[in-house]
Amino acid sequence: MAKILQIKTYPAKILRKIAQPIAEVAQEEKELFEDMVATMHNGEGVGLAAPQVGLSKRMIVADIGDGPVMLANPEVIEVKGRDRMEEGCLSLPGALVKVVRPNEATIKGLDENGETVEIKAKGLLARVLLHEIDHLNGKLILERMSLWQKIRFKLKQ
Ligand code: ZN
């Protein structure tokens, strides 16, 4: 049975750390993927990265409504286009930030079975995967807020 994990929210230090690559997708990682998917669904999010549940591992999950995508050690191979859309984040409750990102991304990584996969994502899925990969590099959408948005967000904390 998948567990619901506790989500770390800003300003938890783990959110600023560069996450470590994983050596392989073993039983422990498979269970973590399942727990992350359950935690993402429970929080009504469309994506989640391992640092958000306090683990310095390069593992992300996403689900934009077509079923979960799970990737370990994701690498962005190619991006195309650009688009501006509002994003939220389970680690920044209540924040909505307009973020400019590519609207297509080719991402390589290991799936939940440890197989190497290449995902050609478009639109929302590309956006979510790129947002989650930012988490692995210690980046939050907070940096993309205007000064005024930051002040408003910090006042609510
Ligand atoms: Zn996030």
Task: Tell me the layout of helices and strands.
Blueprint: H1 27-42, E1 47-49, E2 59-62, E3 69-80, E4 83-87, E5 97-101, E6 104-110, E7 116-122, H2 123-136, H3 147-156
Explain the overall architecture:
The mean pLDDT is 95. A hairpin with a 6-residue loop joins strand 2 and strand 3. Helices cover 25% and strands 27% of the residues. The protein is built from three helices and seven strands; from the N terminus they run H-E-E-E-E-E-E-E-H-H. With 157 residues, the chain is α+β, with helices and mostly antiparallel strands. The longest helix is centred in the first third of the chain and has 16 residues. It has a five-stranded antiparallel β-sheet. It has a two-stranded antiparallel sheet with strand order 4-5. Bound molecules: zinc ion. Zinc ion binds next to helix 2.
For the largest sheet, list the strands in their spatial order: 1-2-3-6-7
Task: State the end-to-end distance.
Answer: 34 Å
Q: Tell me the number of strands.
A: 7
Largest sheet geometry: 5 strands, antiparallel
Q: What is the ordering of alpha helices and beta strands?
A: HEEEEEEEHH
Tell me the Rg in angstroms. 15 Å
Mean pLDDT score: 95
Shape: globular
- Stretches where pLDDT falls below 50 for ≥5 residues? none
| Alpha-beta classification | alpha+beta
Bound molecules: zinc ion
As a percent range, the share of helical residues equals: 25-40%
Please work out how many helical segments DSSP would assign. Answer: 3
Beta-strand percent range: 25-35%
